[in-house]
Design a protein that fits this description.
The complex is a heterodimer of chains A (104) and B (172).
Chain A: E1 3-6, E2 9-12, H1 27-36, H2 43-59, H3 65-70, H4 76-82, H5 87-94
Antiparallel strand pairs in A: 1-2
Chain B: E1 17-22, H1 27-42, E2 46-51, H2 96-110, H3 116-125, E3 129-133, H4 134-140, E4 151-155, H5 157-163, E5 168-171
Parallel strand pairs in B: 1-2, 1-5, 2-3, 3-4
Chain lengths: 104, 172
């Protein structure tokens, strides 16, 4: 697993750059990850990110956009507005989680 | 110090475009285009769904909630117990279609995948475009008022060809 330095801190990532260690993430790091991909985090973004973090803890996998809507309560439309073009990948990246595994 | 490893989200507009022709109205054949269209939209790809022939049942308001699955003619249908092939002679018997439909709906729901109308809601919310086929509308004697409100128009074959210039077209 590659190690990369983000915000002066070493973190483990996969070949694409997604964090691989759940506990190496914190909210300060999330802000930096978001800025790196051109997103300024607002309270609406945090709602999604905190849901993803919590859901991962119980489910063991990253929620899909479908699940973020049905369980997390953030509509598909809103997800596309907050994380343009590729919501599933962008929100998992900022939340320090792997890309979702499910199809829908 | 080397630059941090950051995923490439490919945000620059590649102009990629996909169109699905949905020509089937059986429950099992409604899903392939929906799943792929939803995935394409999630990858930032422009996406169009064109409903034609039997696929019209997916967008006709009075029919879209009631698509059916039949094992008739489908030799890949296995029984839930023992994984045995369902004999084709049994497939057309009364009661088989409702049971098979119910089972398939349950299996889809268990995966957290929505029913067809709700799935189309999600696709439209993600920026997908729905179109209806002129000839099928005329054949079925339906107009815009019979179709989902988010169908953007009833278009003819030439208009579909024009619209999908440069698109990858997938026939289902």
């Amino acid at each position: 697993m590659p190690v990369t330095t983000i915000n002066g801190r070493e973190v483990h990532v996969d070949d694409e750059g997604f964090l691989t260690e759940y506990d190496e993430w914190d909210e300060d790091l999330a802000k930096v990850l978001a800025t790196t991909i051109g997103i300024e985090l607002t309270e609406d973004h945090w709602k999604v990110i905190r849901f993803l973090r919590e859901d991962f803890k119980t489910q063991g996998e990253t929620a899909t956009t479908r699940r973020v809507q049905t369980v997390g309560g953030v509509s598909t439309k809103e997800q596309f507005a907050l994380f343009p073009k590729k919501p599933a990948k962008k929100m998992s990246y900022i939340a320090g989680l792997p890309k979702p595994h499910g199809c829908v | 110090m080397s630059a941090p490893i950051v995923p490439d989200f490919g945000d620059e507009d590649t102009g990629r475009k996909i169109a699905f022709i949905c020509s089937k109205g059986n429950l099992d054949m409604a899903y392939p285009a929906l799943i792929l269209a939803n995935a394409a939209l999630g990858e930032g790809v422009e996406c169009h769904l064109f409903f034609t022939f039997w696929g019209f049942d997916m967008i006709i308001k009075s029919r879209m909630h009631d698509l059916k699955f039949s094992p008739a003619g489908n030799t890949a249908m296995h029984l839930p117990i023992g994984g045995l092939r369902m004999p084709q002679a049994l497939a057309p018997l009364p009661g088989v279609q409702p049971v098979a439909t119910k089972m398939l709906k349950q299996q889809i729901a268990d995966l957290g995948v929505p029913e067809v109308p709700e799935f189309l809601d999600q696709i439209v919310a993600a920026g997908g475009h729905l179109w209806a086929c002129r000839m099928s509308a005329d054949m079925n004697k339906v107009d815009e008022t019979d179709l989902r409100d988010d169908v953007e128009g009833i278009i003819n074959a030439s208009e579909f060809i024009e619209m999908t210039d440069g698109a990858q077209v997938i026939f289902v």
